[in-house]
Design a protein that fits this description.
The complex is a heterotrimer. By secondary structure, chain A is of the alpha+beta class. Helix content of chain A is 44%, strand content 23%. The longest helix of chain A is centred in the N-terminal third of the chain and has 75 residues. Chain B is of the alpha/beta class. The longest helix of chain B is centred in the last third of the chain and has 20 residues. In chain C, helix 1 runs parallel beside helix 2. By secondary structure, chain C is α/β, with parallel strands linked by helices. Chain C contains 4 helices and 5 strands, in the order ββαβαβαβα. Helices cover 36% and strands 32% of the residues of chain C. Classes of the chains: A alpha+beta, B alpha/beta, C alpha/beta. Chains A and C meet through loops of A and helix 2 and helix 3 of C.
Chain lengths: 646, 321, 110
């Protein structure tokens, strides 16, 4: 599953990248190719137009020369009627491109008698004929070919027209004014004309080939179509009426550009053949204009085909790329899934899992080596951990044994003396750790004397417990019916102080109670003063001792003290674990609270009293960690005669 | 014998059924005469029992000349021309006034700066060689200016190459031609004579007084069918244009639909009385009076006949007034 | 537990701040251990900032006292807080140590 997802992701990204890259390249190529085609087409269009214009000018220019030359002759010579006719006929004969020629005189210019004279020579089949144009029905003075050059005083190319006489051939007339010097002033003498057929012009323009649907066309100075692939346009339409017909104002603009002689490229949509370029340029001599029409569709046809081919090739390439990529990726990341499986089994505890060897891929090899290293380290670490744990378990089990031993050292059967009705006794010891430094002990010395002790070794844990074991053993061994409390304490002190480099000390309270008299002899070596509970009085704490704990000074003067107990008096002994029990805010339980708890619970049996005090301490502490050993002992003295439930 | 007689009688009746009339429009075929073509093609003349032949005038021969020498029975003509002929003694009458307004106008190029009548003073005005100088002459007199009148045969080219400062054009014809030669409308200043109190009706139908008296019914029928034809043309313009194009092609005249469409549209507009209180197809007396005024201003009327409205304009008998 | 030890004209001034209990008594001993070797030094222990002391801490005080005595110097403790004084009283340590109410008294005492 994972493998598939990864290879899928890679493939998608690679393909996307290829796609974008390919798309960008393609776009750039396409735009570039388009631009190139456009540029070449433009150049081609210009070239075609210019070469057509050149060919046209090649014929027009010489033709233009004729009237100009003739004008000079007329100005400088006076010819007779017959000579003029002959001259004109020769002119027409000599110039193939000329269809006819005329010299039209101003009124009375040729001869005083005649109002007008316009000799005219023209081709008629194989012959050249001539006649006089002028007649009342043919008032040439108000015709364009005469009137316009006469008024404007410069040569004029006429608008195209159909020659009626010559069988409907499209013609144009070139007119040039000529002058005479009369009375020292230059006066218009008349107009010389030549008529030229436009067939050759049509041929030149129609021979311009632009793909299949492109074409060239020619318009006159008024915008009249002189040539056009659509024959019905010729002479009928101007480029302006055509623009109105197809409702394309752009064509009108092009037309206006053309008749004002500008050369320009325009983009336009001709309904029949779609988007086209039109390049137009003027024919310098006649100021007519030539246009070439380049259809976009055909211009870009080659490009379009190329695009289709590229598109198909790209699709095939992408498919191949996809397949190849899938296979390559799967091969490369195959080991990954094997590693994944190995990792799982290692995690499961099988550290000896075999890692498949990898040679080719450097990154894979690195991964493999890291895995192997991790595997080895894990194995080592687990081994270390096992060792440490078993060592720790060993210590813990030994501590448990030590705890058992320590517990056995302290009397823990209650009630302890069923056959001694004079006293009730209960004690409890809770160490802070497995083993502790608090101690208590009680034992009868003889039938009438009970010896008891409570103590607190400085510190806690194993060190204190060792000292505690020594101390409790010493107390037992040093006490006999001949020794007083002070003597017991002195002996214990002397023994403990020797070889005590660590300066451990033990606070100790030893007491011997005379069961018959109720007299209590005691010696307090630096221990918390016990509390005396009397039926009629408030609990009273013994006074602070002046004696120091045992184990400090080898020689110290310990003294006995005595107090007499009444029947039902209780002594409550404790270590500082009770008064210095801490809650979470480091408040101490305190002596006042102890006194208060004792006061509330006197008259209770030793056990109940002790338990109650223990409970108060527990409530005060409220779950906070026990920092010191808590030890309590309560002795109730009933006296000889009483026999109460302990 | 009886059979032949009956046959002959029947034949005579057949012949008497369709009166032959030759109608001459006053210029070469174009949309200006679309209504007549339509009336013919739709058989409206036939409905009136007429067999009409349409023979166009040429550059050389005017329609009124053909009327004068009897080659045409009924013609159309420019009203001022007809008035001139009448004044010269030709006994013609107007039996129907189709155009109610003047389409005559002058144009100048904006770049010449001539935009008021005053600025036309001493400038060259190109006008047709075939006439039409009455209105501009009246205009010049009324505005106290004078212009050089340069006769032009047929084209607008002299104006296009700035050979003249101003040109007389028909709104329905040469005005559009200029536009079709690449000059935008906003490059021209226009002077519509109708804006200068010279809104004189133009195209009308004319025949000789005698003919009217003898063949009143025929002319009434002709007028009626003609008006029907024009009405039909206005409702079916593309069809009318088809007929016009056909006529022009047959006459080997260069043509295009765009220009003919414009012409038809404007000619039909001219036929609407507009603000004038006159029925379609009839001549308004006040128009006649104003035309006479112009005529007198423009022409030397010495030696010419005078005539009144009722003499000039006569509805054929049987026509509705 | 903060300890500062300064040399003064009189000797050493050790100022204690905080608690000495089973968690830090080792660190406490390490801080003052070099004083064990000072010959004939007078060591003044300012306990005005001492809030609590456990038996482990008392042990160190003891050790210090013993070592100082061996070197021929003296240990003077002053400005104990009441609850600390009480511990010293209960355990009888008050009779082992020289305890004074304040620095001046400690300095002028014999």
């Amino acid at each position: 599953m994972n493998r598939n997802r990864l290879s899928f992701k890679i493939i998608v990204r690679v393909l996307l990248f290829c796609f974008i890259l390919g798309g960008s390249i393609f776009t750039i190529y396409y735009l570039f190719a388009r631009k190139t085609i456009e540029r070449e087409s433009r150049e081609n269009a210009i070239h075609l137009a210019e070469s057509a214009v050149y060919k046209i000018e090649e014929i027009i220019n010489p033709a233009e020369m004729i009237p100009n030359n003739l004008a000079w002759i007329m100005e400088t010579n006076t010819l007779s009627r017959d000579s003029i006719y002959a001259f004109l006929k020769q002119l027409v004969r000599n110039n193939e491109s000329v269809f006819a020629g005329a010299i039209a005189f101003e009124p009375h210019m040729f001869s005083e008698e005649e109002y007008a004279f316009a000799p005219y020579a023209y081709r008629s089949g194989e012959e050249i004929r001539s006649r006089d144009l002028w007649s009342p029905a043919y008032n040439y003075f108000i015709m364009d070919w005469y009137q316009i050059p006469a008024l404007l005083k410069k040569p004029y190319w006429s608008e195209p027209y159909y020659d009626e006489g010559g069988g409907g051939v499209l013609m144009t007339t070139y007119s040039a004014p000529f002058y005479r010097n009369i009375n020292n002033s230059r006066v218009l003498a008349g107009i010389i004309t030549i008529d030229i057929s436009l067939e050759w012009l049509t041929e030149i323009v129609n021979s311009v080939k632009i793909f299949d649907t492109g074409y060239a066309f020619l318009i006159s100075g008024n915008g009249v179509y002189v040539t056009h692939p659509n024959a019905s346009h010729i002479m009928n339409q101007t480029i302006f009426t055509y623009a109105k017909e197809i409702d394309e104002p752009k064509i009108r603009e092009i037309g206006r550009d053309m008749i004002s002689g500008r050369s320009k490229f325009s983009n336009v949509d001709l309904k029949e053949i779609g988007k086209v370029w039109i390049y137009h340029t003027k024919i310098p001599s006649s100021k007519w204009s030539l246009g070439v029409v380049y259809p976009h569709r055909e211009m870009y046809a080659g490009l379009r085909n190329l695009n289709i081919m590229i598109f198909m090739l790209s699709t095939v390439a992408l498919v191949l790329l996809t397949i190849a990529t899938i296979r390559i990726i799967n091969r490369q990341i195959g080991p990954l899934s094997k590693f994944a499986r190995a990792a799982r089994s290692i995690a499961g505890g099988d550290f000896d899992t075999e890692l498949s060897a990898v040679d080719e891929n450097h990154e894979m090899k690195e991964l493999h080596d890291s895995f192997r290293f991790m595997q080895e380290e894990l194995t080592k670490y687990i081994a270390d951990l096992k060792e440490t744990t078993s060592a720790k378990e060993k210590i813990e089990s030994e501590l448990r044994i030590a705890r058992g031993i320590q517990t056995d050292m302290i009397p823990h059967i209650f009630p302890p003396f069923p056959n001694l009705p004079e006293i009730g006794l209960y004690a409890s010891l809770e160490s802070a750790m497995e083993v502790g430094g608090d101690l208590y002990d009680f034992f009868p010395i003889d039938d009438d004397h009970l010896c008891f002790a409570i103590g607190d070794v400085s510190g806690k844990g194993v060190p204190a417990s060792l000292f505690m074991a020594v101390t409790i053993t010493l107390i037992r061994s040093m006490s006999d019916k001949n020794r007083s409390c002070a003597q017991i304490v002195e002996s214990v002190n002397k023994t403990l102080t020797i070889n005590n480099e660590s300066n451990m000390f033990v606070t100790l309270f030893v007491g011997i109670l005379n069961l018959r008299t109720g007299e209590l002899q005691y010696c307090n070596a630096g221990h918390n003063p016990p509390v005396l509970l009397n039926r009629n009085q408030e609990p009273r704490m013994f006074s602070n001792t002046k004696a120091i704990p045992v184990g400090i000074f080898e020689v110290f003067d310990y003294r006995d003290e005595t107090v007499v107990l009444d029947k039902s008096d209780q002594i409550f002994l404790y270590t500082d674990g009770v008064t210095e029990a801490e809650d979470a805010d480091k408040n101490l339980f305190g002596e006042a609270a102890l006194i208060k708890s004792l006061s509330e619970n006197r008259d209770k049996s030793s056990k109940e009293l002790t338990d109650r005090v223990k409970q108060s301490v527990k409530e005060f502490v409220n779950g906070h960690t026990q920092s010191d050993d808590i030890t309590m002992m309560c002795i109730t003295y009933w006296g000889k005669n009483e026999n109460k439930i302990k | 014998m009886l059979g032949i007689t009956i046959l002959l009688l029947g034949w005579n009746d057949c012949r008497a059924q369709n009166e032959k009339l030759v109608f001459t429009p006053h210029w070469i075929p174009q949309a200006q005469f679309a209504g007549y073509y339509v009336a013919l093609d739709q058989g409206f003349y036939k409905d009136e029992g007429l067999d009409v032949d349409i023979v166009h005038a040429t550059a050389n021969i005017a329609s009124l000349d053909l009327l004068k020498n009897g080659e045409a029975d009924v013609v159309s003509s420019f009203m001022l021309d007809a008035m001139e002929q009448r004044a010269k003694g030709v006994p013609l009458v107007n039996i129907g006034q189709l155009s109610q307004h003047s389409a005559l106008m002058m144009v100048t190029k904006k770049k010449s700066g001539i935009d008021t009548p005053q600025k036309l003073h001493n400038k060259k005005l190109g006008i047709w060689s075939s006439g039409f100088e009455d209105v501009p002459l009246a205009f010049m007199q009324e505005h106290g200016i004078r212009m050089d009148l340069i006769r032009i045969l047929q084209t607008v080219n002299l104006f296009l190459v700035d050979g003249v400062d101003a040109l007389m054009v028909m709104y329905y014809n040469e005005y559009d031609q200029i536009n079709n030669c690449g000059i935008d409308e906003d490059e021209l200043n226009t002077f519509f004579f109708s804006d200068y109190n010279l809104d004189i009706p133009e195209d009308g139908i004319y025949c000789l007084e005698d003919s009217l008296n003898s063949k009143g019914d025929a002319y009434a029928g002709f007028l009626k069918a003609t008006l029907r034809g024009w009405e039909y043309a206005s409702q079916h313009r593309e069809y009318a244009l088809d007929l016009v194009i056909g006529e022009m092609d047959r006459a080997h005249l260069p043509n295009n639909r765009v220009h003919q469409r414009w012409m038809l549209e404007k000619v039909l507009e001219m036929m609407n009385p507009g603000k004038k209180k006159v029925t379609k197809g009839q001549l308004l007396k006040s128009d006649f009076d104003r035309a006479m005024e112009v005529f007198r201003m423009a022409k030397e009327t010495q030696g010419l006949q005078t005539f009144g409205f009722e003499q000039f304009y006569q509805l054929p008998a049987g026509s509705k007034k | 537990m903060k300890i500062t030890i300064d040399r003064t004209d009189e000797g050493f001034l050790v100022v204690l701040n905080g608690r000495v209990d089973t968690t830090n008594y080792n660190a406490f001993e390490n801080s003052i251990a070099h004083l064990y070797n000072e010959k004939g030094a007078a060591i003044y222990l300012d306990c005005s900032g001492l809030d609590y002391i456990s038996s482990s801490g008392l042990r160190i005080f003891l050790t210090l006292q013993k070592k100082v005595k061996v070197q021929g110097g003296m240990l003077k403790i002053f400005a104990m807080q009441p609850q600390i004084k009480e511990i010293f009283d209960i355990s009888g340590f008050s009779s082992i140590f020289s305890i004074y109410p304040d620095y001046e008294t400690a300095k002028h005492a014999g």
